[in-house]
Amino acid sequence: STPEAAITSHFDDDTVLEGFVTTVRGSVSDPNHENETLNVRWYLGDLEVCSGLGTEDGQITCDIVFGMDDSEVLLEVSDPEGAAASQSVQVQVVPTEAPEAKIFTPIAEDYYYSGTYVTFSGRITDAEDREEELSALWNSSIDGDKTRLFYFRIH
């Protein structure tokens, strides 16, 4: 007999965030085969993104990173005899906002002298991520890249 496939975590027109890992869940079963013998494949459009065997309880997952051009997620299951079933959902991918960087010091209108150190300070924020998850890189044509608390020397 034919196996069954169901996507249980998302429905048509659900939204997902662009560029973030989204865990998609489903269930697979077959009346005349053990779940562990079922071949499972997840597709994002035409691209296979996860594959493997079913689990004892039939619950399966796949971690997907959606791009703006992605919309269809397909779960496909086949049994050892070649019988197959699938289910797909169409999701809406929502773009994420770019992080924002603000420089507090140095101030462009101040004067800075050769041979002295200048403190750089700033803050980075993002609508989707916590500040402690963000990283920043300062770059100087004289001193190169800096990622920690630092001072640049003016030459």
Give your account of this protein's structure.
Helix content is 0%, strand content 49%. It has strands spanning 4-7, 15-17, 21-29, 39-44, 47-53, 59-65, 72-78, 84-90, 92-94, 100-105, 117-119, 121-125, 138-140, 144-146, 151-153. Strands 5-4-7-8 form a 4-stranded antiparallel sheet, with no helix packed on it. The radius of gyration is 25 Å and the shape is elongated.
Radius of gyration: 25 Å
Number of helices: 0
Q: Flag low-confidence runs.
A: 149-155
- Percent strand equals over 45%
Principal-axes shape call: elongated
Helix and strand sequence: EEEEEEEEEEEEEEE
Number of strands: 15
What's the rounded overall pLDDT mean? Answer: 88
* Structural class computed from helices and strand pairing: mainly beta
Report the end-to-end length measured between terminal Cα atoms.
78 Å
Spatial order of the strands forming the largest sheet: 5-4-7-8
Largest sheet: 4 strands, antiparallel
Task: Please supply descriptive tags for the structure shown above.
mainly beta; 49% strand; three-stranded antiparallel β-sheet; disordered C terminus; 155 residues; four-stranded antiparallel β-sheet; 15 strands; elongated
Can you lay out the helices and strands and say which pair or pack?
Blueprint: E1 4-7, E2 15-17, E3 21-29, E4 39-44, E5 47-53, E6 59-65, E7 72-78, E8 84-90, E9 92-94, E10 100-105, E11 117-119, E12 121-125, E13 138-140, E14 144-146, E15 151-153
Parallel strand pairs: 2-9
Antiparallel strand pairs: 1-3, 3-6, 4-5, 4-7, 7-8, 10-12, 11-15, 13-14
